[in-house]
Amino acid sequence: MLMTNAIPLTQATTDASAGWTPASWKQREALQQPLYEDAAELDRAIGQLAALPPLVTSWEVLALKQALAEAQEGQRFLLQGGDCAESFADCSSPIISNRLKVLLQMSLVLVHGLQKPVLRVGRFAGQYAKPRSTDTETRDGVTLPSFRGDLVNSPEFTPQARRADPQRLIQAHAHSALTMNFVRALIDGGFADLHHPEYWDLAWVEHSPLAAEYRRMVTAIGDSLRFMETLAGPIAGFSKVDFFTSHEALLLHYEEAVTRQVPRHHGWFNLSTHFPWIGMRTAALDGAHVEYFRGIRNPIAVKVGPSVTPDQLLPLIEALNPDDEPGRLTLIHRMGNGPIGRALPPLLDAVKREGRRVLWVADPMHGNTETTSNGYKTRRFDNIRGELDQAFDIHAAAGTRLGGVHLELTGEDVTECMGGARDLSEADLDRAYKSMVDPRLNYEQSLELAMLIVRKSVGTPKA
Length: 463
What we know:
By secondary structure, the chain is of the alpha/beta class. It is built from twelve helices and 14 strands. The protein has helices at 39-51, 58-72, 93-114, 159-162, 167-188, 211-232, 252-257, 288-294, 310-320, 340-354, 381-398, 443-458; strands at 77-82, 118-123, 136-139, 142-145, 244-248, 259-260, 269-270, 275-278, 300-304, 329-333, 359-362, 369-371, 377-379, 402-408. Strands 1-2-5-8-9-10-11-14 form an eight-stranded parallel β-barrel, surrounded by five helices. Residues 1-17 have low confidence and may be disordered.
């Protein structure tokens, strides 16, 4: 649901009832933040950013929260996917449209197989910052700040490129706006029309091993649609889809500047995205990110890793959703194919025992990253599929529901993850490895995973 016009803004005032403002995070320890050399330059950039129009509206945000509440009840399935880290250079029509095509094709597979609406959330139009393991990088005796994504600096290993540049905050907003505007135009123009799924085809996958199965599915859906319209006439709603955006709200100076109050709604909204999330490295209960997130009205998510215990998770849930509001909180578990069997069940049991209302989502990507002998970061499709298979089984055994997936993927013909329909090997990574940070599923692997989700879901008892 990407709307064209933004709500007029009012001057921000302190929300005294909660004792919270968008700047409250500054009273806490803020991890994964870049070091800006010139505070005055940063303040000027933040002021300029705060005066720019919002990228989303409060009514879109609240519509997504309602849809996520329905997903919590098993009435929808969440498909959240996109780049590990966007780059300004990839803000182009072919890359954006191919990314959208993949998500639409995956959602068509899921709708057809699961027989329920699919909630589409793109991991883009703002995913310009990435957490790093260390603040600096050393090459040949030279130490420079780490590359933290285009929101902060550049990947080239020079002092000027690695300098944290406040003007990139403005550039990120502009590139996000361009991306969202193009996605809106495509969807409003009928790009997602179920009468014409051929619009979604990607030329380079014409001979994909999965192409024939997908086209049979499209034909079956088309036949059903024509049959219904023969009986009842044209059916509204098949020419457009609801579509939302998300990103990891990592750089808090940026997020504070785009957090606004709006007429006719109480509280504060992050109006740079519909669905921000907290990464695993910044989810400390007493940290700055949790402090920021507790005050915004957006639906929010938290990444949950294998080291998290029930005693850590339950207070975090209480801090972020004290009123147990439907649709407010999504927990995205990213455990790894090995640890998930040990780490996930205690969390499910604890949350269920406390009766807390959350949407459980599986991220089978981040816990399965490895480095090959030739230096590439990659993921094995078998491990991704294995973690997802286990997630469905573990939820079924616990009497809980896996309500969605969170994936890093692209519509480009990349070779970054091994395995899948073409059985990509370590030797294939050289051919088309394009990611700046983490390896992504290509189109074939993404579509194959969607088909596997359907097969697993249909055969798994529902909670």
